[in-house]
């Protein structure tokens, strides 16, 4: 009786934690939009985000893993560099650039493509088998095709305005009006959608490389702190070489809404929420964590229409629904694929440790494209 009550309480806590996680990342999208509207350079924003994340995670990694952490090798450092480059510098810069040309709701909707893209890449890297004659393989293939169809619907069909309320608040426009030297980029849904989908590609590729890093170095906080540190250096180099060398951009990045954006994204999103996510994965598994991903899209759609003056159009809503259906099809396929495999692994545990199956679940976990 007591154990059942404890399990129920733990279930409520993990659900609440994942709802909080998605709400925080929805807020991250709003802060991203506000910082960009204020004229903050994209590369400077990413560099500061991961600087704050590194400052938070490095002490956490030191104290939580110092007694069991093994020595770093060159292979671990190279994999950390690649994870930072692919999942941080490239994916994040593309995501922000895509958001700047479209909308927060549109960009958030495309992040649900990550599991479908990951499945395709996992096939290419031989981490997955298609298993087209098995229901799980058919579901993952159908989910991937639905994701592609939803992305095309988002891009090429706008439709009528279906926003259920009228809000006269537009924080992004107010900030843009105070930054005359940094005019807002004109909307371009074709280019913006290409950038957002490219971001999903690199986020999926990051999950593949991150699985290799996890296999090589099983200290989650340390490896994540390394990735964030690498991304900080890479983004700073990109900003200095290909973006802006204006010292004012770097000074202003630590003031006003820009400081709020980098502190929120670095400390709360990439720092505190990483701990929450790791706890939920340990308690309930990666598949449980995955099913909450569309909640962020819903919260972003509400907040962006209330605070940013964005309008919700039928094409965006339909495309998002199709992508989410595709997401759940992929998750259903993954869930039904694992069950019989886990039983076989349990029978031969003495001869074959189950590490490979843990790696597969990591690869398939569709964390939002901006969540590291």
UniProtKB/TrEMBL annotation:
TM region positions: 12-32, 44-64, 76-94, 106-125, 189-209, 221-245, 257-280, 287-308, 314-333
Biased composition, class Basic and acidic residues, residue ranges: 354-363
Residue ranges of the region described as Disordered: 351-372
Keywords tagged on the record: Membrane, Transmembrane, Transmembrane helix
Record's keyword annotation contains Transmembrane: yes
Coiled coil regions, renumbered to chain: none
Domain of life of the native organism: Eukaryota
Domain EamA: 16-155, 192-331
Membrane topology of this protein: Multi-pass membrane protein
Protein's UniProt keywords contain NAD: no
Subcellular location, record wording: Membrane
Any GO CC annotation of this UniProt entry: membrane
Family membership: Belongs to the drug/metabolite transporter (DMT) superfamily. Plant drug/metabolite exporter (P-DME) (TC 2.A.7.4) family.
PANTHER family in the cross-refs: WAT1-RELATED PROTEIN
Listed name of the protein: WAT1-related protein
């Amino acid at each position: 009786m007591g154990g059942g009550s404890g399990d129920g309480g733990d279930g409520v806590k993990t659900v609440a934690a994942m709802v909080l996680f998605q709400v925080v990342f929805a807020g991250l999208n709003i802060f991203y939009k506000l910082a960009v509207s204020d004229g903050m350079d994209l590369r400077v924003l990413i560099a500061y985000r991961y600087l704050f994340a590194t400052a938070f995670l490095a002490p956490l990694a030191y104290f939580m893993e110092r007694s069991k952490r093994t020595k770093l090798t060159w292979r671990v450092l190279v994999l950390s560099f690649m994870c930072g480059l692919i999942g941080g510098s490239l994916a994040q810069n593309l995501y922000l650039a895509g958001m700047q040309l479209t909308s927060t709701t549109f960009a958030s909707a495309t992040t649900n493509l990550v599991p479908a893209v990951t499945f395709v890449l996992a096939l290419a890297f031989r981490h997955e088998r298609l298993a087209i004659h098995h229901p799980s393989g058919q579901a993952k293939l159908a989910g991937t095709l639905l994701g592609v169809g939803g992305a095309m619907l988002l891009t090429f069909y706008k439709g009528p305005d279906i926003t259920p309320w009228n809000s006269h608040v537009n924080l992004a426009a107010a900030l843009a009006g105070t930054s005359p030297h940094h005019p807002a980029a004109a909307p371009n849904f074709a280019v913006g959608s290409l950038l957002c989908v490219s971001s999903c590609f690199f986020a999926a590729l990051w999950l593949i490389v991150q699985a290799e890093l996890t296999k090589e170095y099983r200290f989650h906080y340390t490896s994540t702190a390394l990735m964030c540190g690498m991304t900080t250096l890479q983004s700073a180099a990109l900003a200095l070489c290909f973006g802006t060398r204006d010292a004012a951009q770097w000074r202003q990045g630590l003031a006003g809404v820009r400081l709020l954006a980098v502190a929120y994204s670095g400390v709360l999103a990439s720092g505190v929420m990483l701990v929450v996510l790791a706890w939920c994965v340990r308690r309930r598994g990666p598949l449980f964590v995955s099913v909450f991903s569309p909640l962020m899209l819903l919260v972003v759609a509400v907040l962006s229409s209330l605070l940013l003056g964005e309008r919700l159009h039928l094409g965006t809503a339909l495309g998002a629904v199709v992508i989410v259906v595709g997401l759940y099809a992929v998750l259903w396929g993954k869930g039904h694929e694992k069950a019989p495999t886990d039983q076989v692994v349990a029978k031969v545990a003495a001869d074959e440790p189950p590490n490979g199956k843990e790696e597969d679940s990591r690869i398939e976990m569709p964390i939002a494209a901006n969540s590291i």
